[in-house]
From TrEMBL:
One Pfam family, short name: DUF1450
NCBIfam families per the UniProt record, alphabetical: PRK13669.1
Name of this protein: YuzB family protein
Length: 91
C-alpha cells in the first residue's frame, strides 16, 4: 500500500519529490535513481510498492510530485522526469 506523500523542505523552498517502486528499480530504474540522487534539488523516496503494478511490469516509471512519469530506458526516464518538473513548477 502506498504511504501518504511526505513534504520535504530544504530552506525556504520545496524540492520535487521523486518516488520509485523497489520492483521497478530492479527492472532497470535503479540507473535512473542513481543519476537523480546526484541532484541536491530533488528528494528521492523508495517504496516497496507504489500500486502501479501493471505499469511497473511494462516500463520504467517514477512518481514525480505524485504524477506518473515513464521512460523506455533509464536515460529517457531521467529526461522525462526533468521535463515534467520544468513543465509543472510547484510554485
Amino acid at each position: 500500500m502506498r504511504k501518504e506523500l511526505v513534504l520535504l523542505f530544504r530552506g525556504d523552498f520545496l524540492n520535487p519529490i521523486i518516488e520509485f517502486c523497489i520492483s521497478n528499480l530492479g527492472s532497470g530504474g535503479y540507473e535512473a535513481l542513481q543519476v537523480l540522487e546526484e541532484d541536491p534539488n530533488l528528494d528521492i523516496v523508495e517504496y516497496g510498492c507504489l500500486d502501479h503494478c501493471d505499469l511497473c511490469a511494462e516500463s520504467l516509471y517514477a512518481l514525480v510530485n505524485g504524477e506518473v512519469v515513464t521512460g523506455e530506458t533509464p536515460e529517457l526516464l531521467v529526461k522525462a522526469i526533468y521535463q515534467y518538473i520544468e513543465e509543472n513548477p510547484m510554485f
